[in-house]
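Why show two proteins at once? Because comparison is the fastest way to build intuition. When a single record is shown, students tend to memorize it. When two are placed side by side, the eye starts asking what differs. So, the first record is below.
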Amino acid sequence: MRTRHIDLALRACLTLCVLVLGVIVCNPKIAKASDLSLEEARDYLTSYSDVSTNVKGQEVFAEYSFASDEDLNAVAEFVSENGIEALNAAIDDAVQKDEMILAPFKLERTVSPSDVTKYISGNGTHNVSGQSYGLADFGKYGTGEYRVVLGYRVVVSGGQMTSIDSTSFDIPSITRSCTWGNLRLPNYVRASVCGVTANYDVTKTIEIPIGDASFELKSIVDNEIFTVTTYLS
């Protein structure tokens, strides 16, 4: 009888162990913090590349950047000890803090810059310009506000538009964590209408503190668009 009780106790213990192991395997939060070695964590950080789509259907590209090997090694050690989920939590916290800087101003902004329409009349050279506000959407990496200005010169001859020249473009104000670049300025000219469309990318760079080290999260919104159209009246 005693042997039977011991056998039943062993079976119950084995069953409990199997259940506990099953829970751990199915729930990575209960499993050990990280399965990555230090070298694997380094490889993960240096090769990280993420492509997602925001609500406007634009592609958002993201990557990590390290100022020194010391920062890379420190962050890799953090990931090796605490796991990728802990790294993502630190990133989410930094993104939210950056968004808090924008919060008071968002009511004045639109998701995309509103296109501008201008009207001119008479032969000669006409200077045309327009401006608008935009909110670059980086998806899970937050947003960035900016003001865009686009101008050009239109030549009207014989009652028809004939050419566009002296195109100018600027983003005189932008969220401090953002920059812009990769500018393209295609234009068209017809008899009674012409226009210039500014295509440009906006990059958001957020510093992610990890202990005494840090690294940069760089995210890019591909192809923001702002157009100024002019009609001959």
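Second record. Ask yourself what differs from the first in the token line.
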Amino acid sequence: MADSDDCGSPCSSNGPENAENDLQPFFVLHKGRKLGTSSSKSKKTRRKIAWPPICNGREASEDGDNASFYQELRLEAFESVWGKIEAGIRDVLTRINANLFEEIHDWVNKSFAAIKASFSCSLSEVISPFPVLTNNICRQLFTAFVFTKNVEFVDDLLTFKELGQHLKSRQCHVANLSSLDFSVKNGIGGCIRSLLRQLVTVTSTVADISILTSWYGEPANYDRPIVVIIEEMEQCVGVVLAEFITMLSEYVGKLPLILLMGVATTDDAPSKLLPATALQHLQPCKFAMGSPIQRMDAVIKFLLENPFCGFNVGYEVILFLKNYFFKHDATVASFLRALKIACAKHFCLEPLSFLCKGATDENCQEFWNRACNALPQDMLDYASSLPSCSRASVTKGNPNQMVGDILPIRLTELTILWNNWSSVVMCLYEVGLLCNLQLLDIYCEALDPSSSKTKGYRHQEETMKSQRSALSHDQSDNINLHRISDTTKGAIIPQIICRIRDLPAASLSQLLEMWEKYTKDLHEIHEAVEALLKKFRVDDDGKQLKQQKEASDYFPFFPSSRLVSQRMLHGKGSRRTLNEEVAMLAELMIRDFLIPMESAPFHEIFCFKDVGLLQSALIGDPRKTIQEDLLKCQVRLNCSCCEKGLGDLSPSMHDTAILYILSQEHGDLINVYDWYQSFRTMFINSLGVSNKSGAQKSPTPKKRKAVNKLNASDEASIQARFCRAISELQVTGLLRMPSKRRPDYVQRIAIGL
């Protein structure tokens, strides 16, 4: 590329007629830096950009001060609500592997003790740069294969990092190596340098293991195990990893090296990756982490066992999140990312979502009373126009006055409704554990807001009863339940109720003990559970469970039509009678308390239901979004210089937006010269060039167009901005650059929204 001075000479020699047709990208990109007119205007535009408005326009009727004030409140509420959710989930995921970390630490201590017992090296022998002469049997590394049960490794990166921190806190030397250290490009030297960089903390260009032996011989580092964690073994190059293992085995007598390798696939993955010469240097041990489904159930259990956090998702959204979870290799990280996006969208789009912060406040009722009393008139109008509020009878009479008074009460009822709902879901999950049902599946079905859900459950349950009686002569109850579940796919809760009727007395007693824990806030149900528990007593030997009295004696507070049926009173066998009564108690909980938030008034304040918006944010249509942003750049940027004429082009707009709007006048092929002339015309008036004084007739007699004179620097600046805008359109996938066949035309790739 030539210098700017050299590039300026050919342009100065050309006349104004040739200068505008001669597009020189190298020249214009150099000379465009010296022009301060357009750059200063763009800088001023960026300074005047205000906070973007609410995306769906629900807050268009608010005053400017109220809009910015409540927008700050929503942002603060989002940070508070999601911060507590994220912190709790992170703590749950950490506690899931706590027991596994302790088991690995105990194994490390035992391995370290075995190494010390097998090799008795003096400090001078450790410091010497040469390995200790041992036989091949003793040259084995204690190796733990940690099976993560997850094809996608994104969830396990944080796990191995926490494992390393746990071992460091227990006085172990730890080095975490990734698959990038075992690449062909880095070779064995890259592994050793990464090991030295983490342990010795000295950057060395020489990959010498003797540096590690000298470091370990220091009194502060001696007599402590050295744990090397290889996070993703399958992604490593087998030859490099085998050479690394062979080298470490030579120093096993001097350095207490212990390997931890993460395995994401099957048990035979190490034998497939490593040759036999490397495998003979390993003394393996196996550990297994929880599966992704178990981690997901732990996350859902955390959300259910704790009080309402102020945010919930609708039935269709949770189904989408469930499918998204399984489609992305069952990674909890993808599920949490999608849940965070849903939470952010909710607080961005819902004007009253700042009230969600009150759910986590100690004095939630006082918070909501103070916030609702200060709501402006347009907020009250919006609250009264909510679909759930309009369906209910809370807005009869004076709508605004009624909504302002009843909104705090309804919000409190929503939190109580969710807490009761979550208690019933946990009771159902305890039964689901006995038949290998996942909490995520129960959670999704319990969120179904269908009004005929209970009747549907009762109908499906009766169907399953008839199927069970027809299959009563089969081999076992498990086969019956398996066949029943196959014929009623998607009906999880009826399966749970039928499973209760088949539980043995011991399992039924344990189930009621768990129900007693979860139903403390459901006083009526809690009393019924306690009454059922009194029917069990332990014999003197403590092995056999018996029932004390008939079922009807312990339910004086329930109408006989609700809990006691003729079949239960005259059933065959006392165990069957008690199982029927527990099943009927479960039906009562489902009917009276398994009411999802989505079916209550004002649930839109807490509940996010727009699955299409979430899907577009996660999967999305980026090309369509880019086109909409370019065509409505004034709305997106909210700049003060362009807000007067929202439908007109302005030189203060972004160059790429101007160029794309001008391209709408063309078909699929755009003539570059005509496109540039239209773009150039936008800036002639802003640069102070008048058509009268600076106009010159075109030399072609058929085309009598006025050609405006511009000086070389202005012309170069416009050309540079034109070239940069075309490049940005090409990068975003909206434009295809000229071909050799038609060098004066560009092609539009995406036409229409």
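One difference worth noting in the second protein: The chain has a mean pLDDT of 75.
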